[in-house]
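Record type: ASSEMBLY
Status: queued
Input:
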Amino acid sequence: MPEEVQSEPLDPLMTAEDWMKAGKDVAIATVVETWGSAPRPVGSHLVIDGEGHFEGSVSGGCVEGAVVAEATDVLSDGKPRMLEFGVADETAWEVGLSCGGRIKVYVERLG
Amino acid sequence: MDPYALKKLNQCRRERRAALLVTDLGDGRDRVVVEGDPVSGLLGEAVEKAFRSDKSATVEVDGRTFFLNVHLPPPRLVMIGAVHISQALAPMARMAGFDVHIIDPRTAFASPERFSGVRLDAEWPEEALARSPLDAYCALAALTHDPKIDDPALMAALEAGCFYVGALGSRKTHAKRVERLTAAGVPSSAIERVHAPIGLAIGAASPPEIAVAVLAEIIEALRSRGLEARKGEAA
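Status: finished
Output:
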């Protein structure tokens, strides 16, 4: 039998489905808009479980921490949130994008 | 996200079907649209545009904001022939983001030592392609010079609507190929889709240079698909 030798990169949406089947709470974050230089394209996902494990990325690592923190609230009240990150933001010193771009991230609960 | 939507979307992705998740950013409701599903009105136009351009986007329709996330299957390059050109083309194509599949029934050519880390089937194309069918997101390059091996694969690729079909060989070789395919009942409109001689005309001489020419031609076909579709509509 021929072997499938090419490895699949870790896929956030497949991971989300696995987590869901394992009975975990799952939040899905999606880049819905970008302005200027942005490290990850529109449509990119970060998925987070109830214990703060995550897979994927919505930036080059600049804002993932903040998205994971917000996901905890989304999981507890079930309400989706729209987050914006960028150098113009007042939180820029903490979680801004060093590349100078701006991104909008939609965070929602699975189910 | 609706769990059923996630399951349906992932199922489409596993089956290499183009799908799109529509999320109403106002109320958070979402649904999966499979390419070809009818979606009416302005939203339908935006959905069609997203499929064609492979660009996910936020759109405003009738005062509501929707996010359209497109998931097209990753392009796959199927090479018929585990030849010298394939040895150069396989790693280049992988770097450019293609899944690579090499098929050659000649076991002396199709040896894992010559193609480490690549999906390689030492079988006739009919057998290998029955298990791993071609689709519109596949490119096929016929590289064996042997009609017994190349021709059935070319016919399968034209039948499946592969976005690129190319065949190695001189103009003279290709003229004979056209005769054979015509005799086999392939319509001339389909035969015209075969890129032959294969590769962009960059004066490539060595096998790795030919691999560059072939990959460049495949990328051109991949990235101009949307434009071709638009031209088709205008005509």
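Annotation: Strands of chain B lie at 19-24, 30-34, 57-61, 64-71, 76-80, 99-103, 119-121, 138-142, 164-167, 194-195.
Annotation: The interface with chain A takes residues 1-3, 6-7, 9-10, 13, 23, 25, 28, 55-58, 67, 69-70, 94, 99-100, 117-121, 123, 128 of chain B (CB under 8 Å).
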